[in-house]
Amino acid sequence: MKELSYDAVVIGGGAAGMAAALELEAAGRRVAVVEREERLGGILGQCVHNGFGLIEFDEELTGPEFAERFEDRLSARPIEAFLGCTVLELEVEGEAKVVSCVSRERGVMRLRAQAVVLAMGCRERNRGNIRIPGSRPAGVYTAGLAQRLVNVEGYVPGKDVAIIGSGDIGLIMARRMSWIGCNVHAVVEIMPYPSGLTRNIVQCLRDFDIPLYLSHLTTDIYGRDRVEGIEIAPIENGALVMEKAFKIPCDTVLLSVGLVPENELSRKAGVSINPMTNGPWVDSFLMTSVPGVFACGNVLHVHDLVDYVVEESRRAGRFAAEWLAGRRPSRELRVKAGANVRYVAPGRIEPGRDNKLYLRSMIVKNDAVLEVKLDGKPIRSVKKGHVQPSEMITIALGAADLVALAAQPDSTLEISIQ
Ligand SMILES: Cc1cc2nc3c(=O)[nH]c(=O)nc-3n(C[C@H](O)[C@H](O)[C@H](O)COP(=O)(O)OP(=O)(O)OC[C@H]3O[C@@H](n4cnc5c(N)ncnc54)[C@H](O)[C@@H]3O)c2cc1C
Predict the structure, then answer these.
(1) Percent of the chain residues topping a pLDDT of 90
(2) 3-class secondary structure per residue, the chain
(3) What average pLDDT does this structure show over 154-164?
(4) Among the four given CATH numbers 3.40.50.2000, 3.50.50.60, 3.40.50.970, 2.30.22.10, the one describing domain 126-257
(5) Same fold across 1-125+258-329 and 331-418
(6) Mutate-to-test residue for ligand 1 from 23, 33, 43, highest number of ligand atoms within 8 A of CB
(7) CATH architecture of the domain with range 1-125+258-329
(8) Which of 32, 228, 253, 274 is the most buried (most CB within 10 A)?
(9) Which CATH class for the 331-418 domain?
(10) pTM for the complete prediction?
């Protein structure tokens, strides 16, 4: 079996993995990226719509264009990219980490490194995760799988489509299926508000006159061999009103009911997982509970925009390089999600330097205020025109904001939305 050594190994070659690897290499480190697909880019490769890179490149790019720019940067640097190579296991042997991977060309390899960056992205929740009753006819796909079939493989999965869940992939696919000549009859959402970005509701549903049923539960997917339709019923005052249930005939159902960070490898390696994000707990260095193992991108928490993935992953790459050079966070403040905040990542920050926090709201509200409190005392409040669970909120807390607090030990920073 082939054994190779690097300073750092990055698992996953999507936007997160590429951004982290570039930072590590720029800091003079020997880096390898291991990617199970034959190309770098991850999910970007199947997102042929535009809307990527508005922050990173100040341009509207498609997913593959965005990925290609990063691939070009990567190939211009001495970074080893193992493609078509799946990581099977991450083992921790004292200070050293061993990444076992396999590819058709090279067989099984063991890559040794002091630092590992987890960048495996996320996967879609499926029918089993949301327990929709009914038999199991053909024609039920996750929206991301349908996107891959249409955009990469060149297949049309059906003609008359209903979409369950209003996540961004489902919204994008509502428009995509309309463009290729399908009839999209409905997008059905259990919550009273959409789960996707507002711009996608406008550009993918309203512009195509596709009905969005909010506060509706899918009570049945019917059909024997092939899907023949779905049944949906409204939820009124918290109760399902079956008397108002109705059927929507269709031959294809797409599920867009959430994404889950892909952390099987992390769990097996002993990394502690935050139940609110399903990603690893990380400190101010974006380092997991296993020293020397870092995490970024959708494996850490599900992001809405690739620009945030890149920004966070650059930080992870830089921190991994600093950690390799022997630096450790001097003192950390604990960060807590307060009222109306689902989670804040990372869970710790270092007061002596610039920090960036990412959070998700639990409520939909106009004229909201983001309140930052230190040990119960307000230290910052930021006005937000509109907040909703589908849109990530970021807040920068610079060294200047926190320097006055650096003397206080064991402080907790709490962020809430009012
Ligand atoms: C359908 C869709 C539409 C989107 N639209 C937009 C948009 O319009 N604008 C925008 O800014 N953002 C958009 N986003 C968000 C953004 O593109 C993603 O959040 C981002 O690209 C995720 O990057 P990542 O590297 O974290 O994950 P991924 O891109 O998923 O990369 C993870 C990589 O890890 C690899 N991997 C996983 N496990 C292993 C293993 N065991 N061994 C080896 N390799 C492994 C995978 O093959 C994959 O390539 C969209 C996302 C989706 C899904």
Answers:
(1) 80
(2) CEEEECCEEEECCEHHHHHHHHHHHHCCCCEEEECCCCCCEHHHHHCCCEEECCCCCCCCEEHHHHHHHHHHHHHCCCCEEECCEEEEEEEEECCEEEEEEEECCCEEEEEEECEEEECCCEEECCHHHHCCCECCCECEEEHHHHHHHHHHHCCCCCCEEEEECCCHHHHHHHHHHHHCCCEEEEEECCCCCCCCCHHHHHHHHHHHCCCEECCEEEEEEECCCECCEEEEEEEECCEECHHHCEEEECCEEEECCCEEECCHHHHHCCCCEECCCCEECCCCCCECCCCCEEECHHHCCCCCCHHHHHHHHHHHHHHHHHHHCCCCCCCCEEEEECCCEEEEECCEECCCCCEEEEEEECCCEEEEEEEEEECCEEEEEEEEEEECCCCCEEEEECHHHHHHHCCCCCCEEEEEEC
(3) 96
(4) 3.50.50.60
(5) no
(6) 43
(7) 3-Layer(bba) Sandwich (3.50)
(8) 253
(9) mainly beta
(10) 0.93
* Residue 56 CB–ligand 1 contact under 6 Å: no
Tens-place pLDDT, residues 108-123: 999 999 999 999 999 9
Site to substitute for ligand 1 among 9, 39, 47, most atoms within 8 A of C-beta: 47
What is the whole-number distance in angstroms between the Cα of residue 374 and the centre of ligand 1?
A: 34
d(CA 174, ligand 1 centre) in Å: 20
